[in-house]
Design brief:
The chain is α/β, with parallel strands linked by helices.
Amino acid sequence: MKKAVVMVLIALCMMGTVSAAGQAESNVDSWPSEPVTVVCPWAVGGVADVVNRKTATYGMEVLGQPILATNELGAGGNVALTNFLNNEANSHNLIFGAEGAFSIAPNVDGADAILFTYDDYIPIINLYSAVFVLTADSSLGIDDLESLQSYAKNNRMKIAVNGIAGSEAFLAKALAKDLGINLELVSYNGANLALDAAAKGETALAISHQSQARGSVEAGILTPVVVFDDKTVNNEVYKNIKGVGEYGYTGFFRNRCFVLARKGTDQKIIDKVREAYMEILQKDDVVELFNTLMIEYDPLSLEAIDAHIDAVTEIVKANS
């Protein structure tokens, strides 16, 4: 009798396990079953924020649920990325991330305060590739690295950046090291605020995306000095602006913006989100937006995203 009871209990337990597994599989297959929130950890009005809000408009069309674009600021994105660890795998919350949080912040002063690693997330897709530009207060007569180096010999130089441990701050430090000059970093909570500081003469220089500095450059308030790439940029706004790589410097990289999920998220969900964004990025108005923002469609394979993080980490370590 006891043996029969035990066998019944075992059978019931097995049925429960199979049922739970089937339910979990069903939940993954039906994802998303509610609106999907995508957190941008950087300032409203920045390039990533604009891209987030635009791509979110296609949520119902590509996922069958709305995409809610939101922002959570602090410490150059580190606050949002830390708080995101409260999410379980397969949640309906996603977040943007970039090389600043995973390659730079862990390898500079203050790294012991970082409570997350790249391995806490799963990269889904890279949304774009962008080239940073260094601009100067036009009244200073700085229009290339030679004139910057000459001016810095006799003048104290402040440079406005978005966050003290982000991509822009590292690029400023690496360039100062290569040029043998002193640059005092002034951190702002957003590249637009950093550009405003340079435009008002509060700082001599600023680093930003090309599109963010566009208005001030076209108005003659700021002068482009150099782009952080390996080749010259020549477009309707930035006329033959040399890349730092052409000067022989190596402390630079292109900015990428990844969509990330929490570690452990099912591959079916990862694939579903990636396919959705691949479709969104081909929309005519999104392509037009990218042209306006002077950024490039650059989805990258998941392996290429990992390689970018590793490559930037090596650049940071070599130029610390």
